[in-house]
# Entry
Amino acid sequence: MVELLFEDIFTLIRIDPDGKKFDKVSRIEARSEQFDMFMHLDVNTEIYPLHVGDKFTMVLSPTLNLDGTPDTGYFLQGNRKSLADKFEYVMHGKLYKISEEASGGQNVKVEIYASFGGLLMMLKGDPSNAAQFELDQRLFLLIRKV
# Structure
């Protein structure tokens, strides 16, 4: 069984908060329900349109193999089932930065940054939700609307 790095249901709050920069890509802001995480994510909205108020499940996984075997770096097209079969939008990328931010008092937040071929993600929240993440870790981001 695949051991997921992170899984939660997010609600889309805003689209392109800094204005539209690209024709086919939008930056979304979303907040998760269970872990109260905040996320900025660049999404190719031409192939996967999203709207304010949409709810979606977002998963971060180190592999797409259902048995949990590590990703080899090669995609072998075949009839094998994978984690991607259960989702509508999938990206592969690399975690490039983990930082902690203290905003007055005891309220420490961790920020996790990943790049998916230039489409960026920033996930911010409680440090206990970031224990399984490592710098330069390769990961898959998978999304399915709820």
The beta strands are 6-15, 25-32, 38-44, 55-61, 89-102, 108-116, 119-125, 138-145. The chain has a mean pLDDT of 92. The CA atoms of residues 109 and 126 lie 5 Å apart. DSSP finds no helices and eight strands in the chain.
